[in-house]
Amino acid sequence: GTSEPMRIVPTESLDDGVLWEPAINEENKWCVRINISHPYYEKVFKSNYNTQQLNLTAMDTFIWSLGLAEKRAMNQEAKRNLKEYRFEVSRILRELAEELPSPRSSEDVA
């Protein structure tokens, strides 16, 4: 697994209305603060329609926004940094995926 436990701290708002930011919590531990007033959080995380299709749409739109932000990078140094960021996020997600249950196959559902 990852060397650090996941710490997500719901926060009423963040500077400039961003969805998340890295931070240090009250216990002096690294965490990610998430803006519960952000429209994406409101529609996806607070939604009463927590269906598989909504989850897929939420993941697709989130990944699309990351890719689009990378595409809009203005210079080569920023593009290089974003590429390194993408590799690191992918590595962390691989580690986190090891801790998740395997998806059920269609045979399990029938």
Characterization of this structure:
It is built from 4 helices and 3 strands; from the N terminus they run βββαααα. The mean pLDDT is 83. The radius of gyration is 17 Å and the shape is globular. It has a 3-stranded mixed sheet with strand order 1-3-2, with no helix packed on it. A hairpin with a 5-residue loop joins β2 (20-24) and β3. With 110 residues, the protein is α+β, with helices and mostly antiparallel strands.
Strand order within the widest sheet?
A: 1-3-2
Measured distance between first and last alpha carbons: 32 Å
- Strand content is 5-15%
- Put simply, the count of helices is 4
Can you tell me the overall shape?
Answer: globular
How many beta-strand segments? 3
**Helix/strand/pairing class, anyone?**
alpha+beta
Unreliable stretches? none
Order of helices and strands: EEEHHHH
Gyration radius, to the nearest Å?
Answer: 17 Å
Helix content: 40-55%
Instruction: Please state the average pLDDT score.
Output: 83
What's the main sheet like?
A: 3 strands, mixed
